[in-house]
Specification:
Strand order of the largest sheet: 3-2-1-4-5
CATH topology of the largest domain: DNA Cyclobutane Dipyrimidine Photolyase, subunit A, domain 3
Structural class: alpha/beta
Number of strands: 5
CATH class of the largest domain: Mainly Alpha
Oligomer: single chain
Shape: globular
CATH architecture of the largest domain: Orthogonal Bundle
Order of helices and strands: EHEHHEHEHEHHHHHHHHHHHHHH
Number of helices: 19
Distance between the termini: 66 Å
Helix content: 40-55%
Largest sheet: 5 strands, parallel
Bound molecules: flavin-adenine dinucleotide
């Protein structure tokens, strides 16, 4: 079939794979030759929320992508700067006739898409790729967006899903185009111990997906809330960076017999659409009732929180897992986030930023949603009076203390009972470990008063 274009550009963004990449497949179908480019942004230098482990993962993804593109008779061009300026230069250098890319889900990425559409004088083809359903596809009967997860998921789950496409056979890019070298951490003057982090790149991600599909997802409903078990799929960073396709994952996961797993995928898209329709959540509480809450000023307790030295074993274990691996189990994310907002009475935005800095799967929409849920301020959030008790959560979800002992070696010999309640004498439960920095029961009351008073003052 005759091709529409001789040469086009595919701009890689959060879709760092060749398999079932919607815009890339469209580009290959439309053009004789496809020039592949990734534009490194200056965010890494300027933005505090881009952490070392995320950047390392990105480097590995780009290295893997570059190798895979080489096999398809192409070459990955690396540029750095503003996307509009860099793509404009590349268009001039290559005489490309169109640009293809997959749409982003956050307002920062969308702003760039608008700039391209306005300023490039060649056709711009943008595709919806990172979710099964775009934000405009799942609306209430009256055409307005959902604000509550359960009705959203009831509508989302039965909707027909697109099947995954294949992998391009060739990119046939004959031009030699100037490129920066593949980035390494030194490029950003960063240094990281990666020994406990998952490897980035399509090959590693596909191996993880195979493992998840063959074991973790079929037992997901039983083990997903047990942080010491490998009970969840561990694919969040791959969905975030697009090293696996959501369509491929969904299609294969459907036959694993875990309705709950599919519902988790719906949570991801629920938060995507919240951010799309209500971008103000990045700055303020989704629920207007809770705007202007008098959060406390961060002090040395916040410093202890960030180091995993609160004297609350489950909280410290979570933070230390995060600092070591760039990941934290979902159950523990909730406990930790409630601890920051309900025990330390600190603004959820501080936690949101801290997580974004350290999570390899840092996803603006899900992270914001998770923090606002825990703070009680978000869309379909836990009500403010539902405050998780870190001690009883430990008893319930880490009864033997296996998770805690993995991440807090000081507690290796401490009996499990001591991990499930504050020390009665107030003394450290193990040498080198901290006494609890606060009394949960007392701080719970402070939170209830704070929220109630705020509501009364506003009404
Ligand atoms: C405070 C807080 C912050 C969070 N920040 C992020 C974040 O930055 N990035 C991120 O991907 N997830 C975030 N989550 C959601 C969740 O913790 C992670 O998606 C999950 O732990 C990833 O592990 P997994 O891949 O093994 O998940 P699984 O349990 O195997 O779930 C499968 C996939 O479903 C999606 N998912 C699962 N739970 C949620 C959820 N509650 N919200 C949105 N998507 C979900 C993820 O893409 C995940 O990979 C956050 C949750 C909380 C409470």
């Amino acid at each position: 079939m005759a091709k529409r274009y001789t040469r086009v550009i595919h701009w890689f963004r959060r879709d760092l794979r060749l398999t079932d990449n919607t815009a890339l497949l469209a580009a290959c179908e439309a053009a004789e030759e496809v020039v592949s480019v990734y534009v490194l942004s200056h965010w890494a230098k300027e933005h505090p929320w881009t952490g070392t482990k995320r950047q390392l993962f990105l480097c590995q993804c780009l290295e893997s992508l570059s190798k895979n593109i080489d096999h398809l008779q192409g070459a990955l061009v690396i540029r750095e700067g503003e996307a509009l300026a860099e793509l404009t230069k590349l268009i001039n250098e290559t005489n490309a006739e169109a640009v293809f890319f997959n749409q982003d889900v956050d307002p920062f990425g969308k702003k760039i898409e608008t700039q391209l559409a306005e300023h490039l004088d060649i056709p711009v083809h943008s595709h919806q790729d990172s979710s099964l359903h775009g934000p405009g596809e799942v609306l209430k009967g009256d055409g307005t967006p959902y604000r509550v997860y359960t009705p959203y998921s009831k509508r989302w789950l039965p909707l027909p899903k697109t099947s995954p496409g294949g992998k391009p056979k060739t990119l046939r890019s004959s031009l030699t185009v100037n490129s920066l070298p593949l980035p390494t951490l030194e490029h950003w003057q960063l240094d990281s111990d990666s020994s406990d982090c998952l490897e980035g790149g399509e090959k590693a991600a596909r191996a993880r997906m195979r493992e998840a599909l063959s074991s973790r997802i079929s037992t997901y409903d039983s083990f997903r809330d047990v942080p010491s078990a490998s009970g969840t799929s561990r694919l969040s960073q791959d969905l975030r960076w697009g090293t696996i396709s959501i369509r491929e994952l969904y299609q294969n996961a459907r036959s694993c017999g875990s309705p709950q797993y599919l519902k988790e995928l719906a949570w991801r898209e629920f938060y995507f659409q919240i951010l799309h329709h209500f971008p103000e959540v990045l700055h303020c509480e989704f629920n207007p009732d809770w705007r202007g809450l008098p959060w406390f000023t961060p002090d040395e307790k916040f410093e202890a929180f960030k180091k995993g030295e609160t004297g609350f074993p489950i909280v410290d274990a979570g933070i230390r897992e995060l600092l070591t691996t760039g990941f934290m189990h979902n159950r523990v994310r909730m406990i930790v986030a409630m601890f920051l907002t309900k025990d330390l009475h600190l603004d959820w935005r501080l936690g949101e930023q801290f997580f974004m800095q350290h999570l390899v799967d840092g996803e603006i929409a899900s992270n914001n949603g998770g923090w606002q849920w825990s703070a009680g301020t978000g869309a379909d959030a836990a009500p403010y009076f539902r405050i998780q008790n870190p001690w009883s959560q430990t008893k319930r979800f880490d009864p033997k203390g296996d998770y805690i002992r993995t991440w807090v070696p000081e507690l290796i010999d401490v009996p499990e009972k001591s991990l499930q309640a504050p020390p009665e004498d107030g003394l450290p439960i193990a040498r080198g470990y901290h006494s609890p920095i606060l009394d949960h029961a007392k701080e719970r009351q402070v939170t209830l008063t704070l929220f109630k008073k705020h509501r009364a003052e506003r009404s």
